[in-house]
Amino acid sequence: MRDNLVKHLLLSCASLSIVFLAGITVTLFKEGLPIFKEVSVFKFLFGRYWYPTYDPPDFGILPLILGSLWVTLGALFVAVPLGVGSAMYISELAHPKLREILKPMVELLASVPSVVYGFFGMVFLGPLVQRLFDLPVGLTCFTASIILGMMALPTVASIAEDAISAVPRELREASYALGAMKWETITKVVVPAASSGIIAAVILGFGRAIGETMTVLMVAGGAAVIPRSVFQPVRTMTATIAAEMGEAPMGSDHYHALFGIALVLFFITLGFNLLADKIIKG
Amino acid sequence: MRRFKQFVGFVVLKTSVVVGVLFLFSLIVVIALNGARVLSPEFLLEFPREGMTGGGIFPAIVGTFLLSLGAVGFALPLGVLGAIYLREYAGGGRLVRAIRTGINTLSGVPSVVFGLFGLAVFVKLFGFGVSVLSGSLTLGILILPVIIRSTEEAIEAVPREFREASYALGATKWQTVKGVVLPAALPGILTGAILGVGRAAGETAPILFTAATFYTRHLPGSPFDEVMALPYHIYALMTEGTEPEHQVPIAYGTALVLLLLVLAVNFIAIVIRYRARRARKW
Amino acid sequence: MKRILTALGLITSLYVGEGWTRERALTLAGSTTVLPIAQRAAEEFMNLHPDVSISVRGGGSGVGIAALIDGTVDIANSSRPIKTKELKKAREKGIKPVGTVIAKDGIAVIVHPSNPVGELSLAQIRAIYTGEINKWKEVGGESKTIVVISRDVASGTFEVFKKLALGGERVRPDALMLASNKAVATTVAKTPGAIGYIGLGYLSPEVKAVKVEGVYPSKEDVVSGEYKLARPLFMYTDGEPRGLAGEFINFILSPKGQKIVEELGFVPVK
Q1: Which of B34, B85, B209 lies closest to A245 in CB terms?
Q2: Is residue B220, in this structure, part of any structural domain at all?
Q3: Across residues C60-71, what is the average pLDDT?
Q4: Mean pLDDT (whole number) for B98-107
Q5: Chain C residues with CB inside 8 Å of B240's CB?
Q6: What pLDDT score does B51 carry?
Q7: Do B51 and C36 touch (CB under 8 A)?
Q8: Which residues of chain A does B102 touch, with a Cβ-Cβ cutoff of 8 Å?
């Protein structure tokens, strides 16, 4: 009898994750839907101008979506080669002792707070990029992509590494038995066998990067314009929410619009996470 | 030819690891060197003075301390109980799978969305205002998946024989969990809690609208007060600061303190894991 | 383990308990232009009244006013008058925002010290900021692209600039939107082709202020009205300033407070 009570108590605790998730979804909808009374969904998603505080305001988030996309894709450009490459190295080539050092290092990269990354971008990488490429400003999509890429790298690397090490030993041994060298085994047997895991790693890396706020807020520059080059400042969805939420009085159109952005962001990350989940489960 | 390809391939892989390590090192070195110049007992123990250009960051350290402990205070009991259910009581049914998907999804939600949720629910709906309480609750939800995951791992690692011995002695399920499984899983749970502290301490977006303030002379006197926090302090100094010549060094120092905190957290977690593995008699 | 936890708990409760009984508290938020004044004044005020705890935040005038309307701050610092939209919202929530002018300020238009351009007309400024003019050559400077620096939506400085200099028109979308006066000043100081606008109090040798309509943004010309881009700085409260908020605002209006205003580079109210 008591055991049953306990079981139900524990079940409710476990269900909290769904409860909170539902709560977040409900809140986003409740606070975000009202904006679509002022602006059609189409105009919101594809409108090219974000001028929320003008009279009349413009609530088009296309530049923000594209800003997020550009920065994130740029980040993947960095994170995927480095992450998958590191995963391959750590899993297949590294000395066990070296592995013991490298794996904690990857964890360390992952636990550096995002604001510290953003800070590093502002004081070091931004000025460096500005000098190297002779740009008017160093806070650009390019700079943000590099830092974001390094932030997503641990995600990509650890999941890819899990996938690669999970490949059964027999496959490798069969390959060697056929006379293949180590590199050929890795590239033609192991990696393809781990491909679904690696794809999942990339997708999760994408989700991680697109949801990042502080780094892009501090490093990407802050111009809500459809980017024409990576060396331009851009504004992402996350940075817009963080920068403007304080200014929007509760219940105003601007407030609802920001929640609307959060809705879009939420669904994008949700979609990618579920997709990756599905791929991992096979 | 094949050998050459292998050589090049290995070099490429090694390079990807080197780039990652180099980035991590440069980040740590840049912040450490510049931050160390500012670090002193006064810096750590004094309040900010002269319009944020002098004095120390004591209230930010305290604020971060309170916020992360508060977050773990909320997340730990709920997360542990939930994990116990998932590992000890749950079947394989649809509810359990939904809960797991919920946990995975929750861990992929962008931090700024948590901040919005905290704003709409804790700050406004519950009326807690911008406070330690709102911030801790918001951060607590954010780290819940971390706690659940590490607790689950810890519980899973407890050998079946322990439980069976307990049942053989006539104990009920709950008695077994409470008296045998939990104590054995304690180091793992502790590790999770500490990692949760580290994660919560570094987050900025969730506390932007729920807890953080730029300057206050006194420590929070109640859970309903605003607090300064290390990550927010870095952000505010860099973007809203009024005297960069003095404030950028302070930002460096704050970043260093935050980095050291995160390093310490990771280090303690590793030590606990190591010690537990040693002490384990199984 | 248990002992450590209990000890921690005791220590925390000890000092938290001490806090309960203590002080009178005041929160301010809003304009980054007013922030230095608010902060310095807060320090002085707390020195004079040790039982008072004042917390100051930036965020921009819009943030401050929104917080006042939501009831989460006592005083909203603002570098622009409250908007009708905001007044409406406030009324819905039963808040009556009353503004007190605590200083006067000018908005200086700045460029990099190496920029040969020394003056601009309001029409030129508008054209640059709305995207009609793109190169410094078009206003008598070198053949360089103009890097347009602006403020983000929360900024009161931006709102005033938009009204006085841009006639309410939209800023070009590729303008860099920064979060504070200082950020603008720092960026302009580092970027040879940049143009920006800041409150008087943020002028420094690192940037060059251009004459607007032939007038240099000096304190005298702000006071006399010769300099076109001038504006009062406000502190908004719910109703007339009373209680601790009233004491604080009175302090800023007192000679001691106005001296702080002047020291920080703004223009005193008198």
Answers
A1: B209
A2: yes
A3: 85
A4: 88
A5: 32, 35, 58-59, 179-180, 182-183
A6: 61
A7: yes
A8: 15, 17-18, 21
Chain A neighbours (≥3 Cβ pairs under 8 A) are B, C
- 3 state DSSP class of C31: coil
Give how many domains chain B has, as a whole number.
1
Mutation test of the interface with chain B: which of A115, A261, A264, choosing the one with the most B Cβ atoms within 10 A? Answer: A115
What structural domains and CATH numbers belong to chain A?
A: 33-281 (1.10.3720.10)
**Cβ of B33 under 8 Å from any chain A Cβ?**
no
Residues C152-179 have pLDDT tens digits of: 877 888 888 988 888 888 888 888 888 7
Percent of chain C with pLDDT over 90: 24
Cα separation, B242 vs A280, whole angstroms = 49
The C-alpha atoms of residue B264 and residue C264 are separated, in whole angstroms, by 41
pLDDT, tens digit (0-9, with 9 covering 90-100), for B214-265: 766 667 777 887 788 999 889 888 877 667 777 888 899 999 999 999 889 8
Output the 3-class SS for chain B: CHHHHHHHHHHHHHHHHHHHHHHHHHHHHHHHHHHHHHCCHHHHHCCEECCCCEECCHHHHHHHHHHHHHHHHHHHHHHHHHHHHHHHHCCCCHHHHHHHHHHHHHHHCCHHHHHHHHHHHHHHHCCCCCCHHHHHHHHHHHHHHHHHHHHHHHHHHCCHHHHHHHHHCCCCHHHHHHHHHHHHHHHHHHHHHHHHHHHHHHCCHHHHCCCECCEECCCCCCCCCCECCHHHHHHHHHHHCCCHHHHHHHHHHHHHHHHHHHHHHHHHHHHHHHHHHHHCCC
CATH number for the domain that contains residue B126: 1.10.3720.10
Phi, psi of C34, deg, nearest 5: -80, -20
| B-interface mutation test, from A2, A7, A12, A16, most B Cβ less than 10 A away | A16
Give the B:C interface size as CB pairs under 8 Å.
Answer: 82
Position A248, amino acid: A
Prediction pTM value: 0.86
Please give the average per-residue pLDDT across C36-57, as a whole number: 87
Q: What is the pLDDT of residue C148?
A: 92
A225 neighbourhood in chain C, CB within 8 Å: 173-174
The residue segments making up the domain with residue B255 are 61-159+185-279
Asked if C152 lies within 8 A of A222 by C-beta distance, the reply is: yes
Tell me if B17 is assigned to some domain.
no
Q: Which range, of A77-81, B181-185, B210-214, averages the lowest pLDDT?
A: B210-214
Residue B100 lies in a domain: yes
Cα dihedral A156, A162, A166, A169 sign: positive
Distance from CA of B26 to the nearest CA of C (A): 23
So what's the ipTM on this one? 0.88
C21 pLDDT higher than 50 = no
What pLDDT score was predicted for residue C238? 92
Q: Tell me the Ramachandran region of residue C265: left when phi exceeds 0, alpha when psi lies from -120 to 50, beta otherwise.
A: left
Q: Could you tell me which chains touch chain B, where touching means 3 or more CB pairs under 8 A?
A: A, C
Does the beta carbon of B29 lie under 8 angstroms from any beta carbon of chain A?
no
Q: Give the per-residue pLDDT at A56.
A: 81
DSSP H or E run through A115: helix A114-120
- Kindly determine whether residue C66 and residue A136, on different chains, have CB atoms separated by under 8 Å: no
- Reported as a pLDDT band with limits 50, 70 and 90, residue C18 is very low
Which distant-in-sequence residues (6+ apart) come within 8 Å of C120 by Cβ?
A: C109, C128, C139, C210, C211, C212
- Lowest-confidence segment of C17-21, C32-36, C256-260 by average pLDDT: C17-21
Low-confidence ranges of chain A (pLDDT < 50): none
Kindly report the nearest CA distance between residue B244 and chain C, in angstroms. Answer: 8
For residue C236, the cross-strand partners are: C76, C99
| B162 vs C: CB within 8 A | no
Tell me if B245 is assigned to some domain. Answer: yes
